[in-house]
Write a structure and sequence with these properties.
This protein is an alpha/beta fold. It has 15 helices and 20 strands. The strands form four sheets. The chain has a nine-stranded mixed β-sheet with strand order 2-1-3-4-11-10-9-6-7, sandwiched between helices. The protein has a five-stranded parallel β-sheet with strand order 14-13-12-15-16, sandwiched between helices. Strands 17, 18, 19 and 20 form a four-stranded mixed β-sheet that branches. Bound molecules: xanthosine-5'-monophosphate.
């Protein structure tokens, strides 16, 4: 398979490079900068990308690469730090920047070239750097400049090595995708296309081999896309030797346990539902601190899962493997730039593996969220799961400000169901990244018949986001807000006021707690 390797120097944008390349149908993988030339040759990539990074090439602990990599005759694109390192390693001169340049800048092309094909003479680009290149290495030519820097893009005369000072992988560089495509298809001459869903059979075959010796295999299913897709893949490989467990914490959305069970039955998987509602409510009694809520829920989840695993192991006569729905973003976020291969445990079952001594299998660890969705759809998992909005691990507990009680969860579940129903009916479910209701710990006065009453206040929250890191509040049309509000106050006894959250992230977070 035609592959591009991305050597990661620690930029916050490295993940975006990998995503952007894969979105072009080219398989890309992030690797640590310590990778050896021999290993690169063994993997025979069609191209290499040197990512950006926060360091200065002169810093004592700055990441470097083996210089023999430049001689492999594989096309290389250096981005930001990657470009500076290339210039520095090959005899150019990198100047310590007097000031950081961060933000939009105008690229001015001074020499036409394959990499910049399709760009106008002036293009907007996104910069984020401290150092800059004063002198190019010999045998390099300058392709573009900006008002601030003389060398904003460079190329080796043999056409194999490229450097750009700006970031093509961010949305603020409008022609960034065109530049990446030029690199992939014209410089690296990649023609084999990669589509995650085409690899379903291959993943299943690999799982069959990997799990051949396992007596039984356990997976914790949350009803979300990652764990559901992982469960169906493994089920296709080993059938009912897979035991999917679903823990009902009592903090789920209305009807969620039933809905998930039904969907899985249709896919041929029999979910073991563990009713742990009472245990979670008992843990949460009297707790109002958000962090303590999260910790208690996390710890109880592990206890319940562990007990259930032990019980099941006795019942079926041995469980050897735990499957986790870890995806690529989890892997690279926790691995870090220096390549330590530490894996973040799935937030819902963190801490489990060590104590239970299961072998861990993660069939989705090479895939981004969108790719998992494509695989899920190919497996026949319904859109209601595959395209569902994100839902936090601690469930509705982070949407109830103050103490979490069964009564308050019940109110919120029904309010939330109305919000979701109306958004769906309005055809906005796909347009809004996340939408839900929050129960507030205040009472507000209301006129009910001839008397006064004090009822619950709920907030409606809707946000637009790409990855949850930042978010804009979403302007739900007034008529739909009105319908949501009147339905809530009419249908849910005890709720007398509905407010609309119009804060973006930052400064607010998406969830209230
Ligand atoms: P915040 O509230 O931090 O949320 O802006 C960003 C995204 O993460 C989700 N979220 C969580 N997901 N466990 C999760 O699995 C959690 O504890 C948690 N807290 C927030 C949130 O729904 C949003 O999509």
């Amino acid at each position: 398979m035609d592959t591009v390797l991305i050597l990661d120097f620690g930029s916050q944008y490295t993940k975006l490079i990998a995503k952007a390349v894969r979105e072009q149908g080219v398989y890309a993988e992030i690797v640590p900068p310590e990778i050896s030339p021999e290993e690169i040759q063994r993997r025979a990539p069609k191209g290499l990308i040197l990512s950006g990074g926060p360091a200065s090439v002169y810093a004592p602990d700055a990441p470097h690469i083996d210089k023999r990599i430049y001689e492999l005759k594989i096309p290389i694109l250096g981005i930001c730090y990657g470009m500076q390192l290339m210039a520095h390693d090959l005899g150019g001169q990198v100047l310590r920047g007097e000031r950081r340049e961060y933000g939009p800048s105008t690229l001015q092309i001074i020499q036409r070239d394959t990499l910049l094909e399709g760009l106008s003479e002036h293009e907007e680009v996104w910069m984020s750097h401290g150092d800059e290149i004063r002198a190019l290495p010999t045998d390099f030519v300058c392709l573009a400049k900006t008002a601030n820097i003389a060398h904003a893009a460079m190329k080796s005369r043999d056409g194999l090595l490229y450097g750009i000072q700006f970031h093509p992988e961010v949305a603020h560089t409008p022609k960034g995708t065109a530049i990446l495509k030029n690199f992939l298809f014209k410089v690296c001459r990649i023609h084999e296309r990669w589509h995650p869903a085409d690899h379903v059979q291959e993943i299943i075959e690999r799982l069959k081999e990997e799990l051949a010796g396992a007596r039984h295999v356990l997976i914790g299913v949350s009803g979300g896309v990652d764990s559901s897709t992982a469960a169906v893949l493994v089920h296709r490989a080993i059938g009912d030797r897979l035991i999917p467990v679903f823990i009902d914490t009592g903090l789920l959305r209305l009807g969620e346990a039933e809905r998930t069970t039904t969907v899985f039955e249709r896919l041929g998987l029999h979910l073991r539902v563990v009713d742990a509602r009472a245990r979670f409510f008992s843990q949460l009694r009297g707790v109002t601190d958000p962090e303590e809520k999260r910790q208690r829920i996390g710890a109880e989840f592990i206890r319940v899962f562990e007990e259930e695993a032990q019980r099941l192991a006795r019942e079926v006569g041995g469980i050897d493997v735990l499957v986790q729905g870890t995806i690529y973003s989890d892997v690279i976020e926790s691995a870090g730039a220096r390549g330590a291969d530490k894996i973040k445990s799935h937030h819902n079952v963190g801490g489990l593996p060590e104590r239970l001594r299961f072998k861990i299998v993660e069939p989705l660890r090479n895939f981004f969220k969108d790719e998992v969705r494509q695989i899920g759809l190919r497996l026949g998992i319904p859109e209601e799961i595959v395209c569902e909005q994100p839902f936090p691990g601690p469930g509705l507990a982070v949407r109830i400000v103050g103490e979490v009680t069964p009564e308050r969860v019940n109110v919120l579940q029904r309010v939330d169901a109305i919000v979701r129903e109306e958004i769906y009916r309005a055809g906005l479910a796909r347009a809004i990244w996340q939408y839900f209701a929050v129960l507030l710990p205040v009472r507000s006065v209301a006129v009910l018949g001839d008397g006064r009453a004090y009822g619950h206040v709920v907030a409606v929250r809707a946000v637009d986001s790409r990855d949850g890191m930042t978010a804009d509040w979403f302007p739900i049309p007034y008529d739909i807000l009105e319908r949501i509000s009147s339905r809530i106050t009419n249908e849910i006894e005890g709720v007398t006021r509905v407010v609309y959250d119009i804060t973006s992230k930052p400064p607010a977070t998406i969830e209230w707690e």
